[in-house]
Design brief:
alpha+beta, Glutaredoxin, 4 strands, 15% strand
């Protein structure tokens, strides 16, 4: 991973309270795991940003190095790596993800 890619990823992670590195977009997820991750975030009602790794191969590979995690999607909350869709699902079902969002004082999504 180039320094520039690392810096771009780090800036994205630090500048957004909640960011999901995913395949596709929230409206058009390109894999089931990304779709599930978006569904969880939408159910929680939190404001989040997303990065479509399919649009940038350097970010697609770089995020795996950055987090030392081999799969996508990847969720970050307030700069902290949380995990992929399986971990998100486990935490969501246990109520832990909602608690984490509250503890980190993550903003709620604005109603459209």
């Amino acid at each position: 991973m180039t320094d520039a890619t690392h810096e771009r990823i780090e800036k994205t992670v630090k500048d957004n309270d909640v960011v999901l590195f995913m395949k596709g977009t929230p409206l058009f997820p390109q894999c089931g795991f990304s779709s599930r991750a978006i569904a969880i975030l939408d159910r929680l009602g939190v404001a989040y940003d997303s990065v479509d790794v399919l649009q940038d191969m350097e970010v697609r590979q770089g995020i795996k190095t950055y987090s030392d995690w081999p799969t996508i999607p990847q969720l970050y909350v307030k700069g902290e790596f949380i995990g992929g869709s399986d971990i998100m699902m486990e935490m969501f079902e246990a109520g832990e993800l909602e608690t984490l969002m509250d503890e980190k004082q993550v903003a709620k999504a604005e109603a459209e």
